[in-house]
Amino acid sequence: MIPNFSTRSSPKFSSTFGGMRRWSWRITKWKPTKGGREMAYGVQKVAKRIQFIVSQALIRELHDPKLGFITITKVEVSQDFRKAVVFFSLLEKGKRGSCLAALRRAKGYLQKLVAKGVRTRRVPRLEFEEDTSLEKSLALSKIFEQIASEQSPPPNPEEDSPSD
To answer: Which has the closest alpha carbon to 7: 61, 84, 72, 71?
Structure first.
């Protein structure tokens, strides 16, 4: 059974109300950064929770042979919790179409599990995309290795000087 987590962060002491202490639950707001916007803390927490729920469901409950060796790499949740894009990577490159079709068939069941496991006002609608960042990083590392092998080592100044 998957435990439930809420989207609230740690409690912060707020103020007194009628002589009684009151705790407020504060979620960090969106912060502008150089590269765009960061996800709010609550959104990140929901994204991690969805990633955990979907990956556990793929391991334990969905026994579709078309899924093959699949890994849920990350989940991006929109700010209003309406949409969650689940990124996955495959060990076998040729099974992309069949794996995506199997995930779309299981979308309703996964949506139901997410609704049970995440306590939010809206349950994000799941969408699936293949994560190609690993392939891109491997291609870049091969290019860097090729450039490094093409460059010759700098000449050693001790070898050029005549010895007496």
So the answer is: 84
Which residues have CB under 8 Å from 26's CB, separation 6+?
Answer: 9, 12
Q: Flag whether 158 is in a domain.
A: no
Asked if the structure places residue 140 within a domain, the reply is: yes
In the block, tokens 């707020």 appear at 14
Global pTM value: 0.62
pLDDT for the residue numbered 138 = 86
Residue listed under structure tokens 């890994």: 71
As a whole number of angstroms, the distance between CA 132 and CA 79 comes to 24
The answer to whether residue 101 is domain-embedded is: yes
Expressed as residue numbers, the domain containing 123 is: 5-150
Does residue 156 lie in a domain region?
Answer: no
Q: Give me the sheet containing 70-77, strands edge to edge.
A: 70-77, 83-90, 125-130
In the chain, the number of structural domains is 1
